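Lecture notes, unit on protein representations.

Consider one protein chain, 87 amino acids long.
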Amino acid sequence: MAALCGVCCDEEKEDEDDGIADRDDDNAEEAEDDETGEAELSALEKDLSDIKVKKDRVSRQNIRCSREIRSQQGVTHETEEEAASQT
């Protein structure tokens, strides 16, 4: 019986060790996924920042172009509110 008990205990210990190894593998994969996700998030945040800068630049350029067009047409640089109040 003692030998049988040793076998059972050994099998239980092996199962426990396998469970710990599986859990460690899962944790390592999760950590790797987290790092990859954080890197991807960082890259997306940088892309978003670049897009906002470009959008602001285009908006300023549109304002300058609109002013230039109005000045070429002889329209003063009045605001839309001033123009609306005069009508």
